[in-house]
Amino acid sequence: MSDCLFCNIVTKNVPSKIVYEDETLIAIEDINPSAPVHILLIPKKHIASLNDTSVDDEVLLGHMQMVAGQIAKEQNIAVDGYRLVNNCGTLGGQTVMHLHYHLLGGREMLWPPG
Ligand code: AMP
Ligand code: ZN
Fold first, then answer.
1. Is the CB of 39 under 6 A from ligand 1?
2. Of 2, 36, 61, 77, which sits with the fewest C-beta atoms within 10 Å of its C-beta?
3. Which ligand places an atom closest to the C-alpha of 48?
4. 26 lines ligand 1 (CB under 6 A)
């Protein structure tokens, strides 16, 4: 087993509630939701953070955003609006060092964020 939590979720060694999966990414329900809809989009490839991406990842990163928009429609949060977030590094609040986007919806979001 990998020592990366999200790699283990990708390989299903750690169970999760999967809402979407394709060859390059998986989307799961967050275990500790911060909103009525809180989904994590996780690339299958281990990338620690946005700091660790290269031009080779451009297609993957674009695909993740397209899928986020598609899942927002499926979760019925697209019309009212939602937030797509990446926490990067210590000051960004990243706790799991495997790149992921948070898709949050179902309530009004505050700005500026905490
Ligand atoms: P971040 O702070 O941006 O790194 O986000 C990590 C997210 O992963 C948090 O929202 C956690 O609630 C979530 N999380 C941690 N462990 C699990 C798990 N086993 N299954 C689903 N979500 C998780
Ligand atoms: Zn990983």
1. no
2. 36
3. 2
4. no
30: left (phi over 0), alpha (psi -120 to 50) or beta: beta
**Which string of DSSP letters, residue by residue, matches 45-92?**
S----GGG--GGGHHHHHHHHHHHHHHHHHTT-TTT-EEEE---HHHH
Which residues, in sequence order, are CB contacts of 4 under 8 Å at separation 6+? Answer: 46, 97, 98
Phi, psi at 3, each rounded to 5°: -95, 10
Contact 30 CB / ligand 1 (< 6 Å): yes
Q: Which domains does the chain have, with CATH numbers?
A: 5-105 (3.30.428.10)
pTM: 0.98
- In this structure, are residues 101 and 41 in contact, taking their beta carbons and an 8 Å threshold? yes
